[in-house]
Amino acid sequence: SLRLAVIQRYCLRIALIVPVYLVDALLSFAVPDKGMWALELVKASYEAFALYSFLALMLAFAGGPASLVDLWESEDRYLRGSWIMGTCMHGTIKLDGLFLKRLVQGVIQFVIVRFLIVITVPILIARGLYEEGKVRFDSGWVYVAFIHNVSLWICLYSLWLFYLSTKHYLRPFS
Fold first, then answer.
1. pTM of the prediction?
2. Which residues are registered as beta bridge partners of 94?
3. Which of left, alpha, beta for 91 (phi over 0: left; psi -120 to 50: alpha)?
4. Per-residue pLDDT band at 84 (split at 50, 70, 90)
5. Which residues of 90-107 are buried (b: 16+ CB within 10 A; e: fewer)?
6. What is the pLDDT of residue 99?
7. Residue-wise over 131-157: b if at least 16 C-beta within 10 A, else e?
8. C-alpha separations of 150 from 52, 61, 106 in Å
9. CA pair distance 164, 171, nearest whole angstrom
10. 1: which DSSP letter?
11. What is the pLDDT at residue 17?
């Protein structure tokens, strides 16, 4: 069926992260330090793509975006704020198309930010403005690390909210 083909496609995209990492690791022995940014670009881009593919897979399991929104709206579902679940900062949220759109944006922003970081770091290195692990405010590493971590937090929090709002629909797929 078409749905099975879509699910298999997303599973394959996620599973391919292992060979991508393997090839990247093997090529890192042959590539000079100056060319490592190209390998990092491929690895980081695929890593972000795999995170997006995971969200798309979960959406496929839930029946697709339109079907999921219809379920939420027909059941008049809400996500309640809870200290235990880490959702206390936003209170109660109505589950609807806008909520799903924000979750998808939360994941996609990481794909974009990760790609931009991988492009920016070699430029900073070439200009002598980046020393990895050095906490200095005249070095780009502090800013890149901060932006990356905030972006990753938004992405993972979006995935967490998605899980909380769809766990009963996804239970049959464990």
1. 0.85
2. 78
3. left
4. confident
5. eeebebeeebbeebbebb
6. 95
7. eeeeeeeebbbeebeebbeebeebbee
8. 17, 28, 11
9. 11
10. -
11. 93
pLDDT at position 35 is 74
Strand partners, 93: 79
Give residues with Cβ within 8 angstroms of 111, minimum separation 6. Answer: 45, 48, 49, 51, 52
Higher pLDDT, 153 or 37: 153
Q: Please give the Cα distance from 103 to 97 (Å, whole number).
A: 10
Q: Quick check: helix, strand or coil at residue 79?
A: strand
Return the residue matching tokens 């029946």.
63
9 — pLDDT class (breaks 50, 70, 90): very high
Distance separating alpha carbons of residues 95 and 77, to the nearest angstrom: 6
Question: Cβ neighbours of residue 48 under 8 Å, at least 6 residues apart?
Answer: 110, 111, 114, 115
* Average pLDDT rounded to a whole number, residues 68-78: 94
CB-neighbour burial class of residue 42 (10 A; exposed 0-12, middle 13-18, buried 19+): middle
Q: Which of 115, 112, 121 is nearest to 142 (CA)?
A: 121
